[in-house]
Specification:
about 90 residues, two-stranded parallel ribbon, 3 helices
Amino acid sequence: MTNAIYLTTTEPFSGKSIYALGLVNLLAGKTDKISYFKPIITVGKKEKDRRLTLIKEHFKLAQAYEDMFSFTIQKAFKEINRNNEAFF
């Protein structure tokens, strides 16, 4: 049985957040353990990603905010510009 789901689209602003909310809501009714992960967030370190915050608070996830993403967009571009794609 699969224990991870990756939601993606081919273009931005296509409604992933709405689908993610619905999917997490569906899964929350079927299991006790849920976590949420977004590989790259588009905000800086000082502000929080609104979607991560929404899902964390709405579903009362025990997961730390910092564990919900890997990179900020700035850090990702910095690593790509260094040709450090192995980082990903």
